[in-house]
Amino acid sequence: MDRVYQRAAKLVKKTLDVEGALVMDMSHGEVLETVGVEANMSLIVHSAEDTTTYQVQGDVCVRIWDMFLKYPDGRVFEALVPAPLRPFVPNGTQYALCKYNFLS
């Protein structure tokens, strides 16, 4: 999947003619009955050039999860990346499309 996400980032970069593009994979997490301070997940950020993995735990997981619950159909953010995702994207990011496909 890493190659697929990296190619997707390259395609978005080329198609939109932007300086860079990222694809975040948040599907690697410990499945818990409720998301709380004991939650943890790997957040994988794919760019056209490389891949970076972050280990996210506790309150940060809760804030990311709450954001996806607030926008279950996804949302495009213009000029302001949602606060829970800011530590994982470069400064100056102009657009963010947030969609989580695993909510039931």
Keyphrases for this structure?
104 residues; 3-stranded antiparallel sheet; alpha+beta
Strand content: 25-35%
Radius of gyration in whole Å, from Cα? 14 Å
Distance between the termini: 22 Å
Mean of residue pLDDT?
A: 78
Could you say which overall geometry the principal axes of the C-alpha atoms support?
Answer: globular
Number of helices: 2
List segments where confidence is low: pLDDT < 50 over at least 5 consecutive residues: none
The neighbouring-strand order within the major sheet is 1-2-3
Percent of residues in helices comes to 25-40%
The count of β-strands is 5
Structural class: alpha+beta
Describe this structure in words.
- This protein has 104 residues and is an alpha+beta fold.
- The chain has helices spanning 2-16, 59-70; strands at 22-29, 40-47, 51-57, 75-78, 95-98.
- A hairpin with a 3-residue loop joins strand 2 and strand 3 (51-57).
- The chain is globular.
- The model has no long low-confidence stretch (mean pLDDT 78).
